[in-house]
Design goal:
The chain is an alpha+beta fold. Helices cover 23% and strands 25% of the residues. The protein has 8 helices and 21 strands. The strands form 6 sheets. Strands 1, 2, 3, 4 and 6 form a 5-stranded mixed sheet that branches. A 5-stranded antiparallel sheet has the order 7-8-13-11-12. The protein binds uridine-diphosphate-2(N-acetylglucosaminyl) butyric acid.
């Protein structure tokens, strides 16, 4: 057995907020043959928590129990067809490294999801998404083990019940699954998803500017891409990835430098009547169709998604700091730890933000990360 056990252990290196919470016991799973032993340790613990990259997590205090950190590694092409391929990565693989590896294989579909912090195993849990693509659109299946029975199962999209920043794994009936590896169906031909205005603008700016970094080979990836409306050559997959990386670096703090868990709240979905009333009072308020999955509102009209970042900024929180807990100066949706903020301090700040948005706009914000109390 090669399970590593630390008692007690600081979880600071293992949550992207950099909160210095302690666990009574930290178990690190690196070898797939140790899965049963790791599950046995979880079963005997007073409380149990499974940790992936810890990038979507707020530890509100010390954890009086056993934390299992899934550090399984490995990635491979499972099957390669003429037009697409199934690829697999173990749960502990770093997400961005995996995305880069798929591009190296000449496989497309994950480029818009570049630079999202965290692990492959965590990607289905909140159905990560960015710049017009959600993980579920590229998902094939995953292998999970039932924490209670030890049974291994391959779960498909329907089993996973993906939603906006949501899946079965965030709900009580899915908590029993420990994700071991995830498979994606990726395409050999490149069909860029350029729905997000900011991504199109970044690509246009980069196409106009002389290249200084040598990145982005305008190669065969482009052959299948549709021509752009302005007649400029369409980008290749690496250029899209580079543009996403540039936008993220510009707007979002790097967890290695400034602790954070990405967006702290989901973008709220409201009835069309409420969105109309808010837009009448605030003509610059961004709003988007929430999509069929959100269902109709009380008035039968399609529901509307608002920008939590805009609502929070309007309440005056952008760049706000209380001790070491703060709101990022370039993106109001991101709470940050300037050094030694505790989980309780970050949570208290989040509560105040929530209360002020509710009071000013009548909109309820829901946290996006998992909060462990
Ligand atoms: N905005 C502001 N002030 C701010 C931030 C945003 O006014 O401080 C407004 C702007 O009008 C902006 C709009 O909000 O145009 C949307 O902002 P942005 O494009 O940054 O996207 P977001 O809705 O805030 C979502 C995801 C991000 C993802 C981006 C890009 C959620 C909760 N967040 O953010 O995901 O990277 O879109 O697709 O859906 C994450 O989940 O951790 C995450 C970073």
């Amino acid at each position: 057995m090669t399970l590593r056990i630390d008692e007690p252990a600081s979880l600071r290196p293992f949550n992207s907020f950099g909160v210095d919470a302690r666990a009574s016991r930290l178990v690190t799973l690196e070898d797939p043959t140790d899965v049963a032993a790791a599950l046995a340790l979880l079963a005997e613990a007073p409380r149990a928590l499974v940790l992936g990259g810890g990038s979507n997590l707020l530890l509100a205090g010390d954890f009086d129990g056993t934390v299992l950190r899934v550090a399984l590694r490995g990635r491979r092409v499972v099957s390669a067809g003429e037009n697409d391929a199934i690829v697999e990565a173990a749960a502990g693989e770093n997400w961005h490294d995996f995305v880069c590896w798929t591009l190296d294989q000449g496989l497309h579909g994950l480029e818009n999801l570049s630079l999202i912090p965290g692990t492959v195993g965590a990607s289905p849990i909140q159905n990560i998404g960015a710049y017009g693509v959600e993980m579920r659109e590229r998902f094939d299946s995953l292998e999970a083990v039932d924490r209670h029975t030890g049974e291994r199962r391959r779960l498909g999209p329907a089993d996973c019940r993906f939603g906006y920043r949501d899946s079965v794994f965030k709900h009580p009936d899915g908590e029993r699954w420990l994700i071991l590896s995830v498979r994606f169906r990726l395409s050999r031909s490149f069909e860029p998803v350029l729905d997000y205005g900011e991504l199109r603008a970044e690509l246009s700016a980069r196409a106009a500017a002389p290249r200084s970094d040598g990145s982005g080979h305008r190669d065969t990836d482009r052959r299948n891409a549709p021509a752009t409306a302005d007649g400029s050559p369409p980008p290749d997959a690496r250029e899209v990835a580079a543009a996403v990386v540039a936008i993220r670096r510009r707007k979002l703090p790097d967890p290695a430098v400034l602790g954070n868990a990405g967006s702290f709240f989901r973008n709220p979905v409201v009835d069309a009547a409420q969105a109309d009333a808010l837009a009448a009072a605030h003509s610059d308020m961004p709003r988007h169709p929430a999509g069929p999955e959100a269902g109709p509102g009380a008035d039968g009209r399609p529901r509307v998604k608002l920008s939590a970042g805009w609502l929070i900024e309007r309440c005056g929180w952008k760049g706000h700091r209380e001790g070491d807990a703060g709101v990022h100066e370039r993106h109001a949706l991101v709470l940050v730890n300037h050094g030694n903020a505790t989980g309780a301090q970050l949570l208290a700040l989040a509560e105040r933000i929530r209360a002020s948005v509710r009071e000013r706009f009548g909109v309820a914000l829901e946290p996006e990360p998992t909060i462990v109390r």
